[in-house]
User: Fold this.
Amino acid sequence: MSIKRIIGISTFAADIVGGRTLYLDQKSYDQMASGRRRATRTKTLDGAAVVYDAGFAVADQTFTLDLRATDATLGAWVAYIVKTYNLIRISTTGGVFSCVPSSWEETNGVVTLEALVMEQLA
Assistant:
């Protein structure tokens, strides 16, 4: 049995349909708690390597949220959010983030929202 986590998605602007509390599958929730540094490694002719390391930034994260449709309107709501807003708020137990809702897809009762993290608000 997979454990589900609750997240909140809302708009920054006042919108009567601009916010929901949703259940997120564990796999997607775990993905949100990952990250990577801005680093590249280039091999050199002597067999060593040169590393360019620009550190970690929360803005490098992309949230891929698989949402189980609890009602028939979820897919339409996510599509509305992506089409209408350039910035949304995603609230998790790990923090509150401002994100760009970049794409959505609905397949077999699962709505996937891809959100590009801009900054951590709290």
